[in-house]
Amino acid sequence: MASFPHGNGRPFTPEHFKGPRRGLHALQRQHHHIVHRAAFLDEMLKLLPGGTGEGLVTFNKRCTGIEEVRDGGLTIHFADGTTRTADAVIGCVRQILLRGQPNIEPEFTGKYAYHGLIPMEDAVAAIGERARDNLMFWGYGGHLVTFPIDKGKTFDVVAFQTPKTAKWEHGNDWVVSITIADVLDDFKDWSEPVKKLLSMLKKRDKWGLFDHPPARTYCGGRKICLLGDCAHASTPHQDAGAGMAIEDAAVLATLLAQIEEPDPTVLEKVFTAYDAVRRPRTQRLVTTSRAAGLLYGLQLPGVEDAWTKCTTSVRIGIDGYGSTTLNSTAEMPLNSCSLRVSNQRRSSCVSYC
Q1: What is the average per-residue pLDDT within 92-102?
Q2: In terms of Cα–Cα distance, which of 221, 235, 332 is closest to 281?
Q3: pTM of whole model > 0.85?
Q4: Average pLDDT over residues 272-289
Q5: For residue 55, what pLDDT is reported?
Q6: Residue 226's domain is classified under what CATH number?
Q7: In this structure, are 95 and 228 located in the same domain?
Q8: 199 in the same domain as 113
Q9: How far is C-alpha 348 from the chain's CA centre?
Q10: What is the mean pLDDT of residues 31-36?
């Protein structure tokens, strides 16, 4: 979440809200360190025994079905025709777990985003040295987020906008190709610095922004457990989606570590405790992230373009997510989960695919 550090030289002032649909002055977000996701994952994989070969992780797999077998385990079927057996399945099986229930499919959030890259030297030539910082540009109906990637060599731009209708007009294609003319037409009433940046976008595309409506549960007895985006996909407006998945994993791993001997009844209690702690927090994020997108586009009911309310909302974050730390978001749930399981027999250890 953006902050308003004192002395950054680029504060918002009330006059930035004047004029028809102008892109507002950029807000610098300081003290952030950005790592490319692919590079981060590559380094994380190096910590796993066996890496990605015959080790613990295999990519490019899509689960198409789960079948219970006689010994109480599960056979997992994949789209490539392969199968695996395991005691339980944790991950992207939302349609399987929630089959026949409402609120399974993702919903369009009423926002989309243009994404593109600009060589950093070109971005600096366009808007100055502040291009090397993390920036946000606010305006009526949308906002821009920019940040350096590729060790500072590339300027990454994500430009959020609100469609004229409430529908995503590209069907099941959530990422579509676009032209510079498409982007500039959508931001034709914005300020010149914004339009100049958008005119320079390379490798550009348009994303539909979808999220998941609340699920009734994240677990199915002692067999299946949802984690990450398949449980609570959210919009990116609070920069918290990946963090929530990491929290999920930390909570579940801590609970599973308390199991010492195979015991399916304890595994079910672990999944139930995980669901009770993680579901309220993560589903609240889905709601507040939508609200953050409205805030940045000056569309949040009760706030809109009221200067004092806007700055206050940014400083404290929507529902406090903007100012939380790892200690407050992860350790408290871990303690709660530990209490839920501590009165059970700690006697299970299961294997997972």
Answers
A1: 83
A2: 332
A3: no
A4: 93
A5: 65
A6: 3.50.50
A7: yes
A8: yes
A9: 32
A10: 69
Q: d(Cα 33, Cα 195) in Å, to the nearest integer?
A: 27
Q: Is 5 exposed, middle or buried (CB count within 10 Å of its CB: 0-12, 13-18, 19+)?
A: middle
Contact between 187 and 161 under an 8 Å Cβ cutoff? The reply is yes
Task: Return d(Cα 289, Cα 242) in angstroms, integer.
Answer: 13
Nearest to 329 by CA among 342, 317, 341, 340: 317
| CA proximity to 77, closest of 96, 94, 54 | 96
33/112: higher pLDDT: 112
- Cβ neighbours of residue 353 under 8 Å, at least 6 residues apart? 76, 84, 85, 86, 89
* DSSP state, residue 24: P
Query: For the purposes of burial, counting CB atoms within 10 Å of the CB of 18, is it exposed (0-12), middle (13-18) or buried (19 or more)?
Result: exposed
161 and 248 share a domain?
Answer: no
- Alpha-carbon span 179 to 206, nearest angstrom: 10
Contacts of residue 70, defined as CB under 8 A and 6 or more positions apart, other chains included, come to none
Q: What's the CATH number where 33 sits?
A: 3.30.9.30
Whether residue 177 is found in the same domain as residue 313: no
Q: What is the pLDDT of residues 206-254, one digit of tens each?
A: 999 999 999 999 998 778 899 999 999 999 998 889 899 999 999 999 9
- Whether 320 and 338 map to the same domain: the answer is yes
CA 238 to chain centre: 8
Cα–Cα distance between 3 and 221 in angstroms, integer? 42
Cβ contact 104:88 at 8 Å: no
Whether 220 and 315 share a structural domain? yes
181 and 225 in a single domain? The answer is no
